[in-house]
Amino acid sequence: MSTGLTLVRSMYSEPPHLRLAMGTTSTVKLIAGLSLVIAISGCARGLGGADYSRRDARQAYRVQYGTVVATRAVTIEGEYTNLGTVGGGAVGYSLGRIIGDGDGSRFAGAVGGVAGAVAGRELEQAATTEAGLEITLDMDRGDTLVIVQSSDVDFRAGEQARVLFGGRKEARVLKAL
Fold it and tell me: What sign does the dihedral 153-155-160-162 (CA atoms) show?
């Protein structure tokens, strides 16, 4: 036996082969939890004028034309879902369980789970926050609209634009054709 194996045996009450298996399980849980949290950033729905969800495809939109009066850079807040909270909690719990032995390990897991849930929630919110654009338009039919969307298309004052109105009280601004 190597010195490291003897050290592991003296530090923990479990046999070395069981401790190795438990550590591997914790590592797998940790990697799975981190993967879940990282995947959150890919779940954010696009909020730009050119972003369409599957549900938006093959839908009829009313089109109106107008002139861009002004634009202003804004921040579109990210969203909180259970994915970030639960994923962060699982990662925090797994990391906490690695610390200590017996009751201490369970307590550290509980504390780690709560801290991980809070951190996962905030990480999800930060990952889904995006730069936006507030666009003020004078519509050809006389009214004025302000629409906020992702800043995927740049607009300038005086530029002609078209506004697509969807059936769910949503609108998007695109360059005039």
Answer: positive
145 vs 22: CA distance, rounded Å: 59
Q: Taking 50 as the threshold, does the pLDDT of residue 72 lie above it? A: yes
Position 87 scores a pLDDT of 83
Paired strand residues for 145: 137
Domain boundaries defined on the chain: 3-42+80-127, 47-77+130-175
The 10s digit of each residue's pLDDT in 19-32 is 444 445 555 455 55
Give CATH for domain 47-77+130-175. 2.40.50.100
* The pLDDT of residue 56: 67
